[in-house]
Amino acid sequence: MDTFEDSIGVPDVLEPPVLKDADLVLDELEEPYPQLKGKLDRKPQTAAIILAGGTGERFGREGGKQLVEIAGKPVLTWSAEAFDAVGDVGLIVIVCPKDRSAEYIKRAVDPFPFVTPVIVAPAGATRQESAFSGLEYVPEDYEYVILHDGARPLVTPEIIEHTIATLKGNLDADGAVLAHPAVDTLKVVENGVIVGTPDRSVFWNAQTPQAFRAGIYRRAHAAALSDGFVATDDSALIERLGGRVLVVEGPRDNIKLTVPEDYELLEAAVLKLYGRNPEL
Question: What is the pTM of this model?
Answer without folding.
Answer: 0.82
